[in-house]
Amino acid sequence: MNLDEYRRTARQWLEANTPAAEGVDGAKRFMAGLYDAGYSGITWPKEWGGQGLGQAEERAFAEVAREFSMPTPIFSIGLGMCGPTLVDRGDDEQRARWIRPLLRGEEIWCQLFSEPGAGSDVASLQTRAVRDGEGWIVNGQKVWTTNAQYADWGLILTRTDIDVPKHKGLTMFVVNMRHPGVTVRPLRDMTGRAHFNEIFFDDVHIPDSDRVGEVNDGWSVAVTTLLHERLSISAGVGMSGDNPTSLEALREVVDTDDPLVRDQLVELYIRSKALQLFNQRLGQETRAGIFPGARGSAAKLLLAELTVFQADLAVNLVGPQALLEDDRLAFAVSWAPGMALGGGTNEIMRGIVGDRVLNLPPEPRVDKTVPFKDLKVGTQA
User: Mean pLDDT, the chain, as a whole number?
Assistant: First the structure.
């Protein structure tokens, strides 16, 4: 099938199957249909449940999908972060067990890294995993976790050794979010909605078969996840009219005959297009086996800055009445500052880019060789 035919059939399927508004069950039905039609996991390995197609098909579908409001956000963590980590760092049994249900929307995933005392400095986390026969017992707290209220599984980073420096005593696991020792509590943000959660783990048993990577090598697995997270977040940029601050949406509600307005819309188009092309390049390199490294942080930083720019531009062009009359726009504007925090703050991203992309001198650090138990970090007294 050539790409024109691929686009045509994809558009036909989306027109016939994209629901106007659905809850979690409806989103799962949609995702299952999307997978069965061949449009979920387009470039993922076929042996693990993906479609095994090329980048051209994935780009073609993405171009068509921008025209539709698909009920897929609750799957974004699994598709963009957890699943790719399992493909890269999991074993064959884990891939065979989890990838296909993830792609088909049968199971929802979340990512469990941040803690009350370990946000930007993730390696300072204190959630402990202790050996217990053939498994592990986990106790601790995570916070700012997206979709935890829906999740069946979570990718959790834990501390398994306090006698070594903080980056060297971490281990990654897959945790059953339905375990009776897991408590999920919603956190309401400035939009008035509860997108995030805090999660408490009380004597949660995890079998050793659900460990991802080697014991005490969790930081390297986490770096893989964070790379995919930043690429996934930055790839969310688009000019779809479904976003009330997008170029298409703003063109419908402002005076495009005003040359000053046109100048600002052109700036929005240039920023959006540049980031799209940058993400496309990083995606192609990743699928070709070329590790983008810290440039993923640059993409995430650019998206955060673009999101705030879009929100400010929308308010300036539409006027303050938009925040009173248009609930979607009010939500988008209040949500925008969060992009400068989620997935790593802008300050952290700039530090990573300066250190690892531009080769500037790194910030001085005194904790690289100190055992974690001797550090005074986060909530550890």
Answer: 88
Of 243, 247, 242, nearest to 20 (Cα)?
242
Which residue carries 């790839």 as its tokens? 235
Burial class (CB in 10 A: 0-12, 13-18, 19+), 10: buried
Give residue-wise pLDDT tens across range 280-289: 787 777 667 7
> Could you tell me which of 247, 248, 253, 289 has the C-alpha nearest to residue 268?
247
Domain count within the chain: 3
Q: What is the pLDDT of residues 194-253, one digit of tens each?
A: 888 999 999 999 999 999 999 999 999 998 898 887 766 655 543 344 678 888 888 888
CB 252 within 8 A of CB 241: yes
> What CATH number does the domain containing 150 carry?
2.40.110.10
Residue 117's identity, in one-letter code, is G
66/128 same-domain check: no
The half-sphere exposure of 126 on its side-chain side, counting CA atoms within 13 A, is 16
Picking from 11-20, 121-130, 136-145, 315-324, which range would have the lowest pLDDT averaged per residue? Answer: 315-324
Q: Could you say which of 216, 250, 279 is where a domain stops? A: 216
Extract the tokens encoding 143.
């916070």
d(CA 172, CA 268): 39
Please list, in sequence order, all residues whose beta carbon lies within 8 angstroms of the beta carbon of residue 82, skipping any fewer than 6 positions away.
102, 109, 110, 111, 153, 154, 155, 225
Domain that holds residue 41: 3-103
